[in-house]
Write a structure and sequence with these properties.
The structure holds two protein chains of two kinds. Chain A is of the alpha+beta class. Chain A is built from 14 helices and four strands. A four-stranded antiparallel beta sheet of chain A has the order 1-2-3-4. Classes of the chains: A alpha+beta, B mainly alpha.
């Protein structure tokens, strides 16, 4: 390939290869793309990670618009429908004259009470058709706690009918609505918790890696103590100290804090390692010689160059937080009613009897946890691989 | 080697100190002390509480001392006399309650560790040698699911399946007829029959992690020139893999004790609560809920010490195995 040389009288410049004066080796069309474009390019080739990203986005949106998406409100209970099995959503109904037409519906129940054990059993009754509509008016709620509304994306047209797509729990509350509202709490605990870890981890890791010496030794010792503790006993110990009189919101924040207090060590290690590698680089020396303050060197010059790595570590730390909250709530010392999280839902499915007779109470919340954790792991792996696009 | 051992043991002391501080903090954390709750329950039942008697009780238990004196009393009791304090719920010294439970915790943790090793080694080697085959993808998928499913959900799922398909409930370590029986062959077999579920539940995530590590290490090793030389001079295939690369890739197996053990002990705690096993877990949860803090704190302290000892053992073994470590 011919290259056009611009003649100049001075010595050829030996600068970065991107200066126009020194045509570099043959470059592809990605040659002048910036770091984030390259990261995105590399990331988007990992199909599993991209799909996982969409799954996470979906769960976040479900959490954000929980009130509208849920067919009911999470606390609405109907004692006559306890432990009712899931109803299937149907699309076509057959009229009396044999013609079928489009009508969203679920089939109703007939309930039988065993006279000996007084246990209820529900049989789905195909004769009983409950029409279901989109954007119906249902139970009133306060959207984001701000304004009143009563529109639900999907619900029975007649407000008094039942529609339990995922069944009900032991108090006759709609599992789907509770699961959707639980998504908000569980996803947000992960995000809030990871933000706290992020601040702690980045600051302590940066201090440790930038200064080295005594600061480094002390911080590394602390990290060692924390990461050598078996986490669950420790979480249990701290969560059990929360006074029973505190409001659910307070408990939510404290649990988030507890969960994040032990999640920052991995991040701090990563940041420290990168700082060690970067603090000898030319651009850092240049910044120092320019008279930048230490704070400016850390936050303005070094940290931005490892944002992509931090993003990857944070994504991989998120599922741990979600599992931690789920485990604590499951054991009954985490979040409590009226707050609904996946762990609170799983707490209901603790004994064999419930699992055997109403397995949907285990399957759906557990499935939500597993899918989320898997998706975060795949997404984090993809981000980690893409974090350094200049690597061979 | 001796220098390395001494250095490594000295390194443990500040960590142990930090650990004891955390355990003590957990003991002190709940608002009020035992005397407060005792007075409350006495007043509930209509008994008259004499303020002077209350003061005397506080004096006896040392609740009026400054916090560092309390810490010093607590830790010196443990170190010098093996006295972990008093369990107010059980009305017995904590030391009488914990050892048996810690023993079974340790036993199940070690059994799970052996399970992790036994499963991860062949699968890891297989996945590394046959990379990008159907078998490898299958194990990778299983491994990912193993990492993603939290212990207690796995325990619940296995409970459900064994109830549904074998018609038995899986809680506990023994069938009812063996619980009180003296040790015999039948009891041992019965124990094994109950033990496999907790071991699988606890070991799965560790196994999955270790398979990934072994696969990555071994794949790196398999492309080194000495392996190619060995192949070229006609060494049989299994020997090429097993004799040298696997031995080098085995290091993570030993160092795994360090990072798998805390996870295993964590896992034993929550799994034991779900499956109702007589380990430290259920007792810890119960003592935390009833705020029997000396018992709870002792468990947390001992579990931490256990993982530290595990890490020490793994570091020493690694130094024995790999001379590069002990001379740096």
């Amino acid at each position: 390939m011919m290259t056009v040389h611009t003649f100049i009288d001075e010595e050829p410049e030996t600068g970065p290869s991107t200066t126009p004066l020194k045509p570099s080796k043959a470059t592809s069309d990605m040659g002048d793309a910036n770091q984030w474009t390259l990261i995105w390019y590399k990331f988007s080739r990992n199909k599993l990670a991209v799909v996982s990203g969409f799954v996470i986005l979906f769960f976040c949106l479900v959490g954000l618009f929980a009130e509208v998406l849920a067919p009911s409100v999470p606390d609405a209970s109907r004692p006559q429908f306890t432990n009712a099995p899931p109803q299937n959503l149907g699309f076509f109904v057959t009229d009396a004259d044999g013609s079928s037409r489009f009508q969203l519906h679920v089939t109703g129940y007939t309930m039988e009470v065993d006279p000996a054990s007084l246990r209820r059993s529900y049989v789905v009754d195909p004769e009983q058709i409950v029409p279901v509509g989109l954007f119906v008016q249902g139970a009133p709620y306060k959207m984001w706690g701000l304004f009143d509304a009563n529109i639900h994306l999907l619900g029975p047209v007649n407000h008094d009918d039942t529609m339990y797509l995922l069944g009900t729990d032991r108090l006759g509350r709609d599992l789907l609505s509770r699961l959707i509202h639980g998504t908000r709490i569980s996803m947000s605990i992960g995000l809030v918790g990871v933000s706290i870890s992020l601040v702690l981890g980045v600051i302590l890791g940066a201090l440790s890696g930038f200064y080295g010496g005594v600061v480094d030794t002390v911080i590394q010792r602390v990290i060692e103590v924390i990461s050598s503790m078996p986490t669950i006993p420790l979480w249990l110990g701290l969560a059990a100290a929360i006074p029973l009189t505190w409001s659910p919101l307070m408990v939510y924040f404290i649990i988030t804090l507890i969960v994040s207090l032990f999640g920052w060590t991995g991040l701090a290690r990563e940041v420290r390692g990168r700082f060690f590698a970067l603090r000898g680089e030319d651009f850092v020396t240049a910044a120092k010689l320019d008279g930048s303050s230490e704070r400016r060197v850390i936050f303005r010059h070094i940290l931005p160059s490892l944002t992509s790595h931090i993003l990857a570590v944070v994504t991989l730390a998120l599922p741990t937080m979600i599992v931690a909250e789920t485990a604590l709530s499951f054991l009954g010392i985490g979040l409590k009613a009226p707050i609904v999280s996946w762990g609170v839902l799983l707490q209901e499915a603790q004994n064999v009897r419930t699992i055997a007779n109403a397995s949907w109470q285990l399957v759906w919340p557990a499935g939500a946890v597993v899918v989320t954790v898997l998706a975060y792991n795949f997404l984090g792996d993809g981000l980690r691989d893409a974090a350094d696009p200049y690597e061979a | 080697m001796l220098r390395y051992v001494i250095k490594r043991i000295l390194y443990m002391i500040p960590t142990l100190f930090g650990l004891s501080l955390i355990a003590f903090m957990i003991i002190q954390l709940p608002p009020g002390d035992y005397v407060t709750s005792m007075i409350a329950s006495m007043q509930d039942s209509g008994a008259n509480v004499d303020p002077r008697q209350v003061e005397r009780l506080r004096e006896i238990y040392g609740f009026n001392d400054p916090i560092w004196v309390q810490y010093f009393k607590w830790i010196s009791g443990i170190l010098l006399r093996g006295d972990f304090g008093y369990s107010f719920e059980w009305n017995r010294p904590v030391a009488e309650l914990i050892w048996e439970r810690m023993g079974s915790t340790l036993a199940i943790s070690i059994a799970s560790l052996l399970f992790v090793w036994a499963v991860a080694l062949p699968i890891g080697i297989y996945s590394a040698v046959r990379r990008h085959t159907v078998g490898d993808y299958f194990f990778t998928l299983v491994g990912f699911v193993g990492l993603a499913v939290p212990n207690f959900i796995l325990a619940l799922a296995l409970m459900y399946f064994s109830y549904r398909y074998f018609g038995q409930s899986v809680g506990g370590l023994f069938s009812p007829e063996y619980v009180e029986a003296p040790w015999s062959w039948g009891k041992f077999v019965d124990l094994l029959g109950h033990l496999w579920i907790p071991i699988i539940v606890i070991g799965t995530s560790g196994t999955a992690a270790l398979i990934r590590v072994l696969r990555a290490n071994l794949s790196d090793e398999l492309h080194k020139p000495y392996v190619i030389t060995a192949k070229a001079k006609g060494l049989p295939g299994y020997k090429v893999v097993l004799k040298y690369p696997v031995r080098i890739a085995l290091n993570p197996f030993v160092s795994a004790i360090g990072w798998v053990l805390p996870e295993l002990i964590s896992g034993v705690t929550i799994t034991a609560i779900v499956l109702n096993l007589p380990t430290a877990g259920p007792l810890l949860l119960r003592s935390l809920i009833s705020q029997d803090m000396y018992l709870a704190g002792s468990f947390i302290l001992l579990m931490g010490v256990l993982t530290l000892i595990g890490m020490l053992v793994s570091d020493l073994l690694l130094a024995l195995l790999d001379p590069r470590i002990r001379f740096t």
